[in-house]
From TrEMBL:
Residues 1-22 form the signal peptide. SMART domains: NRF. Pfam families: Acyl_transf_3, NRF. The keyword Plastid does not apply. The chain crosses the membrane at residues 224-245, 291-310, 330-351, 371-389, 433-455, 462-482, 502-525, 537-556, 582-605, 626-648, 654-676. This is Nose resistant-to-fluoxetine protein N-terminal domain-containing protein. Residues 686-706 are annotated as: Disordered. GO terms for molecular function: acyltransferase activity, transferring groups other than amino-acyl groups. InterPro entries: Acyl_transf_3_dom, Nose-resist-to-fluoxetine_N, O2_lipid_transport_reg. It comes from Chrysodeixis includens. Residues 44-212 form the Nose resistant-to-fluoxetine protein N-terminal domain. It comes from the Eukaryota.
Length: 706
């Protein structure tokens, strides 16, 4: 056993070293764009020469004007972004007799508050937004939008901004795309095109970034990922060919076919993945709960991950704070569903199968299996986001994707070690992987309770479970009352917002209670059978669904702009007991379904349709966010917000993540899972794929909860 563990650690270490070797050079430099390319291209004399030529050519003059700066459409609806025509601009590359004319796309930030002076003007021209006449409702809406933009700026720049002025227009800044020749700076180009000194006129703006063709350097990590996936593809083809030849063409008994040689077979792994039979002890409703919870995660991120809205007033202030958006704004609670399921399965799959002493003797396997089960796909996504993600597409605001790539190049190791929620909470690689970090941390400490549960004495087990739950509730509640966090995720106070995210939302202490509630229900389902009348069952469902509805709608008054900030006690109580209450709802639903009182709800959650979605939920969770980012920032114009459009985009995002997760699970996760089980002595006992799959599902330590 020791030698097998050593071999596993060597394999994991080898993969990590490959990742490190690529990432070490990735971080020297760490930039996703080649900044020297922009600096080396600057040439003031050549810039003047090219602009003089452009001004004598009507087509080129129209070309640069058409690809560049213009007033955003829908400013009064909150839109401050006009991207120009990114692909038209950088697509210009003409070899002229004296020089090469190459377009360069830049974005600038122009404050709406401007004062102009010119000899042609008799008086100074002031553009003062505060003097514009709008109705009170428009002013109120713009004020709220301005507060939300302040919060977003603070989060994106990972710094605390000073409070903005009271005017709804005081910080209104236009983000404009501009097309200029390659050797020019934006200021020289604007001065030359307009044939005047714009700074002397009083026109003020800030440079944001510039883009040129082929400005994404190919780094060693890109080579690493190409080599790794090429090798995996080659091994997959060989393994599949061997498997098909042995079991289909020669019709050999699967018992005589090497499991290792066909471990990467698409044929065998595909049959396992698509087999939906269930064995004894399987809780069917868990598949539906897990699948729907994951869909809810993707839905919430779909509404929150859009780059730019053409009508942000409608999105942020007309729709978002109303009761109609509760089904989206409450999506954050679904993560506590996964914590609940994780704690539930830790107890349910071990109670009656292991003893407390066996757990202690094999605690290294308990931890190792959990880490290894999550490692292949997690390492794949980390490597992908640190490398090839940057080359998948492009767009005028691709800098957002590049920033994610740079974050992963700098902090990938904290993700693989599951410590990023503490090591680098504001710059996490794979931002949604904070959940995995907390889940692993909870699994590491779970044997403290699990040992007493597995002793076989029910009184001791219940005492340990409730003592653990009460201890974590007392500790987290005390911490929350001391820190006094806000009650909802969105806030106009950037300082409190960042404090909430870093010290509450991704903090193990404040998120642990659903896991412990899940442990209680896991033992309850395992050891206690429920007997009640149909009327009592209906009453239980009414109470459970009422609890879930109450939890959802508590977000509504707390997220209103007029919520009194002095109601800190209510905020603290909300933060302390909202999540364990949701876990109570999930646990009660499972308990009723398992004992035959689920009715149509259990039928719906137990449909075979959910099984494939449940099995792919871990991959969907890891892949969907980066895929959304790529799709959204490939856009060349702000998107008009509507619930119908965003629902349609959710279906597209979920389908794309489903396909990618299916392929990754088939080619990477399933083979690695088979190899890990063989090395740990837990290989399949039955030769047929159906038996192997269900055996894998029922293995407690290797059960994947997400």
């Amino acid at each position: 056993m020791v030698s097998k563990m050593f071999l596993i650690l060597v394999l994991v270490h080898a993969f990590t070293v490959v990742l490190v070797e690529g990432s070490v050079e990735l971080t020297l430099p760490n930039d996703a764009f080649d900044n020297s390319l922009y600096e080396d291209a600057l040439d003031p004399e050549l810039c003047d020469e090219q602009i003089r030529f452009i001004r004598t050519n009507a087509y080129l003059t129209a070309f640069f004007a058409d690809a560049g700066i213009r007033i955003p459409k829908g400013v009064l609806h909150g839109n401050t972004v006009e991207m120009g025509n990114y692909y038209q601009c950088i697509g210009l590359n003409q070899q002229l007799p004296n020089f090469e004319l190459q377009g360069k796309y830049c974005t600038i930030q122009v404050p709406l508050n401007q004062s102009f002076e010119s000899p042609l003007l008799r008086d100074k021209l002031n553009i003062d937004p505060d003097q514009l006449y709008f109705d009170d409702n428009t002013v109120k809406i713009l004020t709220e939008l301005n507060a939300l933009k302040t919060e977003q700026i603070a989060l994106n720049q990972a710094s605390h901004q000073k409070s903005l002025q009271d005017s709804p227009f005081s910080a209104l800044t236009l983000n404009l795309g501009i097309c200029i020749p390659k050797p020019c700076t934006t200021r020289q180009a604007l001065n030359s095109f307009l044939n005047t000194d714009i700074s002397a006129l009083g026109f003020q703006y800030r440079d944001n970034f510039c883009r040129l063709p082929n400005d994404k350097p190919w780094v060693p990590g890109d080579t690493v990922i190409v080599v790794i996936f090429s090798l995996i593809g080659l091994i997959t083809v060989i393994s599949t060919s061997y498997d098909v030849y042995q079991t289909v063409i020669l019709k050999n008994d699967p018992k005589t076919v090497s499991v290792i040689k066909r471990s990467f077979s698409v044929y065998t792994n595909g049959r396992r993945l698509m087999t939906f039979s269930s064995g004894p002890g399987t809780i069917e409703c868990l598949d539906g709960i897990r699948a729907l919870a994951m869909a809810w995660v993707v839905l919430g991120h779909t509404f929150g991950a859009e780059g730019f809205w053409a009508n942000p007033i409608v999105a942020y202030t007309t729709w978002s704070p109303t009761w109609r958006s509760i089904w989206v704004r409450g999506a954050h609670i679904t993560v506590d569903t996964f914590f609940t399921l994780s704690g539930f399965l830790v107890v349910y799959t071990t109670a009656g199968k292991l003893t407390g002493m066996n757990l202690l003797k094999n605690i290294h396997l308990f931890w190792l299996n959990r880490l290894l089960r999550m490692f292949p796909l997690l390492a794949t996504v980390v490597l992908w986001e640190a490398t090839y993600l940057n080359h998948m597409s492009d767009g005028p605001y691709w800098a957002a994707v590049a920033n994610r790539v740079e974050v992963c190049r700098a902090g990938w190791w904290t993700t693989l070690l599951h410590i990023q929620n503490y090591a680098n909470p504001s710059t996490m690689c794979i931002g949604q992987a904070w959940y995995l970090a907390i889940d692993v941390q909870l699994h590491i400490i779970s044997p403290i309770i699990l040992f007493w549960v597995l002793l076989g004495n029910k009184r001791i087990a219940w005492g340990a479970l409730f003592a653990g739950l009460l201890a974590i509730l007392a500790a987290s509640t005390t911490y929350i009352f001391i820190k006094e966090f806000q009650a909802v995720m969105m806030s106009s106070d950037a300082v409190r917002q960042q404090d909430y995210l870093s010290n509450y939302y991704i903090n193990t202490l404040t998120r642990a209670s659903p896991f412990f509630v899940g442990m209680v229900f896991g033992y309850l389902v395992k050891t206690t059978k429920l007997q009640m009348s149909q009327l009592q069952a209906v009453c239980c469902w009414f109470l459970a669904l009422s609890l879930s509805t109450f939890i959802m709608y508590t977000n509504y008054p707390l997220s209103k702009p007029d919520w009194d900030p002095n109601n800190q006690v209510l905020d603290n109580l909300h933060n302390s007991f909202l999540r364990p209450s949701w876990a109570m709802f999930i646990g009660s639903m499972i308990y009723l379904c398992v004992n035959g009182y689920g009715g149509p709800i259990n039928w719906f959650l137990s449909l075979s349709f959910w099984k494939i979605h449940s099995r792919l939920s871990y991959g969907i969770y890891l892949f969907h966010s980066a895929l959304q980012l790529v799709v959204n920032y490939t856009s060349i114009t702000p998107v008009l917000f509507s619930v119908g459009l965003m629902t349609f985009k959710f279906l597209g995002h979920y389908t794309l993540a489903f396909i990618v997760s299916f392929l990754a699970t088939l080619i990477i996760d399933a083979p690695c899972s088979t190899l890990f089980k063989l090395l740990l002595g837990g290989g399949p006992k039955k030769p047929n794929p159906e038996g192997e799959l269900e055996s894998s599902k029922k293995t407690d330590i290797q059960q994947l909860d997400t």
